[in-house]
């Protein structure tokens, strides 16, 4: 009998007030308004470490949702991802008070130079001793483009073309620029780094020109664990090539299983072992020790949610209110109105605007949603692990830190009883080892990033067994 | 009688092995090789907080010193600022274990987009509760340019023109985009932010086009304390306009006094109260409890210093070895060879290459250098405060954490006895208050950054008394 999969859990977070549970900032037990405060992050990190979570997964946007009703009013009033702060900068603070918790940070390949980002991630990988992941996104907000000097978003497929070259530059810096034994710290001969083992990358591509060498010496993981969430064709092709962990959201169990199978097929086509990708489903879990507790929570969260907030968010740059309820999403996409690109990822073309509006902000949309006692929640999780084909979840927060606290106090013990949840951080020190097993600290050999590792080595080293 | 000036002290640091004391990484008591380790930074922060330092001042480069002897060999062998890591990312870790210590981070205006940097600094100002400063640089290494897609450095004066517009964009974001009372967190009416008090900046200049709004809500200081170290004409004009604290390095006491007077004149010409600028001299202090201790340290540090390391560093992109000893620095500048731009800042045109080579890496070059017992050191410091016109020092490290430890154990008590050093962090919570007095958390009214604060306010607010 094969061992039963254990659940991987990330807390789905963002350095802002209203991430995805819009309206709930008003709940008296919610701490979202404290996101500017370093103590908010230290407390959260200690809690997740206590619950042996894999990681905190930090989403990000670099613009404002200002399409809905023709301006940023709704986003601001409802605190829909604005105000927000940089996601990378809370990681060192959380790393200072943890030893096992991982950190996944979102960063876009579209607007900032790869050389500086490469050093930022290497710095984080050093400071966390190999506990970081990068969620690769290409950005979708029209306002984000205007914050970086452009008139409008870069075309969706074109963004992935840029992203692909961006990855190449990063792999060259992370994997190829410094050999493992470059830093020798030879005090007697006064040689800190052996210069013959550090290489310029001299990248000259269509979008980037980067000389190198990388400024950071090799960090524990070198390349951070690569996360991705693309669901468009271009996104999945990109992810099939690069992703090690994929964030799956919004579908039913059957849809998700099919999606995962298709995705693994993409990885196989890219020459990779498809088992080296883990799939994390976005999961809404409302748990209570009694049915009554559960019902109370569902009722509270439902009553407080902001439909306007969800509309402003879901449309990205788009204004839903400009369309009649029977307009098909596919027609809006065809018109390429501001914000249309996100629709490709979030909706099916045959859905209508009325459809979208009535479902918005609701909890039970056939996706990974469960409200129940620990037994019910654990049953659902086991079902998604075994029948849905997922490897873990990104736990959506209704309350901070309430949602994580409930999960740790009520769900984790039940999963542990069933052998479905780790007892401690026993599986290696780095995040990659946590996902793929002790000793697997670096990218696997079949990952395209490793191609650039060998390129700069002396021929005899490449050919050695 | 006016109160005697108290000394401001920053520790001069860099997220790397060899910052400016090249060769000393081999010293058995030196911890520089631990710079990748988060504990290195936590220990240092706790030590400086115990010594009530103003701040740790983090230098940075985004390229390699690869001009000397035609390649990066010397820089790598001697660990001259490579390997290095990002300076901003160690700040949150240090902030997690301190309450009073400030953090000054170097960032260049030449290669990365202002919108993203604005959010990074606001995030740091939030996480530290107003304890950050920004050391504005425009970068000088030819290799840095090649890491960001350019063939060679942007011309020196042109860089300052870009920097000036960069500052304008930042002020608009930091000072103008969000009014102080924009975030109201009105639970009853479900209004997080009053949208009428958040503004697009719609900047469209010669180099940048940025829509806004800023993504972060106002942080304690809004604009971080602005540090600068320009000594060229363009640099001083820039600093006279923008700087609140100026890093002065390399000159004699008399030169420094003259420099400071000239700088204050620039500030006056820019319409600012010249007293709102603080001057920090780069200071090399070797202190021991006995003369014998001092002599031993001087001897050790002198014996271990790497002349090659200093040559690779001081020339930036330049190769000193290509010139005869009687070549004038001014002639090299005139030829505009790679790396010439840094020479403008570091040397006088009439100096010869031979001059530079013989003095390199030496300690006593007429600048702020003192080796002695606590009494001798304190006398020197008092003299520089009173006769040199400085307000504080950037303490150069020979050993980490030895240099700071010695200063705290031996010099600080002596300065305190003389009323020249703070007893505790009594002077406000933010770094700007630490420099300019309790209550002065924001930019002063005569600073050009505040011009952009009023611009977006409603007319009745601007005109109100």
UniProtKB/TrEMBL annotation, chains A, B:
The keyword Glycosyltransferase does not apply. Pfam families: Bac_luciferase. Residues 437-465 are annotated as: Disordered. FMN binds at residues 60, 106, 156, 160, 231-232. GO terms for molecular function: monooxygenase activity; oxidoreductase activity, acting on paired donors, with incorporation or reduction of molecular oxygen. InterPro entries: Diverse_substr_monoxygenases (IPR051260), Luciferase-like_dom (IPR011251), Luciferase-like_sf (IPR036661), NTA_MOA (IPR016215). It comes from the Bacteria. The keyword 4Fe-4S does not apply. Residues 36-390 form the Luciferase-like domain. Keywords: Flavoprotein, FMN, Monooxygenase, Oxidoreductase. PANTHER family: ALKANESULFONATE MONOOXYGENASE-RELATED, C2H2 FINGER DOMAIN TRANSCRIPTION FACTOR (EUROFUNG)-RELATED. NCBIfam families: FMN_nitrolo. Belongs to the NtaA/SnaA/DszA monooxygenase family. This is FMN-dependent oxidoreductase, nitrilotriacetate monooxygenase family.
């Amino acid at each position: 009998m094969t061992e039963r999969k254990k659940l991987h859990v990330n807390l789905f977070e963002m350095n802002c007030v209203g991430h995805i549970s819009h309206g709930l900032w008003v709940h008296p037990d919610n701490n979202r308004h404290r996101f500017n405060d370093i103590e908010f992050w230290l407390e959260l990190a200690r809690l997740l470490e206590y619950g042996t979570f894999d990681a905190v997964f930090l989403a990000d946007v670099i613009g404002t949702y200002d399409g809905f009703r023709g301006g940023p009013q709704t986003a601001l009033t409802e605190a829909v991802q604005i105000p927000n702060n940089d996601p990378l900068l809370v990681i060192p603070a959380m790393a200072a008070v943890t030893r096992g918790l991982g950190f996944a940070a979102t960063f876009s390949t579209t607007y900032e130079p790869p050389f500086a980002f490469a050093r930022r991630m290497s710095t984080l990988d050093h400071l966390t001793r190999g506990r970081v992941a990068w969620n690769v996104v290409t950005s979708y907000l029209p306002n984000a483009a205007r914050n970086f000097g452009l008139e409008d978003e870069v075309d969706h497929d074109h963004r992935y073309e840029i992203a692909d070259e961006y990855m190449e530059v990063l792999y060259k810096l992370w994997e190829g620029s410094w050999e493992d034994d470059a830093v020798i710290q030879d005090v007697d001969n006064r040689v800190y780094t052996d210069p013959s083992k550090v290489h310029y990358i001299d990248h000259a591509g269509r979008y980037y020109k980067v000389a190198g060498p990388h400024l950071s010496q090799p960090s524990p993981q070198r390349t951070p664990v690569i996360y991705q969430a693309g669901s468009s064709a271009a996104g999945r092709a990109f992810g099939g090539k690069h992703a090690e962990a994929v964030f799956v959201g919004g579908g039913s169990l059957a849809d998700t299983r099919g999606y995962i199978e298709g995705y693994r097929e993409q990885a196989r086509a890219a020459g990779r072992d498809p088992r080296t990708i883990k799939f994390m489903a976005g999961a809404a879990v409302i748990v209570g020790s009694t049915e009554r507790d559960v019902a109370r929570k569902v009722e509270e969260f439902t009553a407080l949610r902001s439909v306007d907030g969800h509309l402003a968010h879901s449309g990205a740059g788009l204004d839903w209110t400009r369309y009649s309820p029977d307009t098909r999403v596919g027609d809006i996409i065809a018109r390429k109105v501001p914000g249309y690109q996100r629709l490709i990822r979030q909706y099916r073309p045959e859905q209508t605007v009325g459809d979208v509006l009535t479902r918005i902000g609701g909890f039970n949309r056939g996706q990974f949603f469960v409200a129940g006692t620990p037994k019910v929640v654990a049953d659902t999780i086991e079902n998604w692990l075994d029948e849905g084909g997922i490897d873990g979840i990104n736990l959506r927060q209704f309350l901070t830190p309430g949602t994580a606290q409930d999960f740790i106090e009520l769900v984790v013990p039940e999963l542990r009883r069933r052998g479905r949840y780790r007892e401690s951080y026993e599986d290696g020190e780095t995040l990659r080892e946590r996902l793929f097993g002790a000793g697997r600290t670096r990218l696997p050999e079949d990952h395209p990033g490793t191609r650039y590792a060998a390129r700069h080595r002396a021929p005899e080293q490449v050919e050695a067994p």
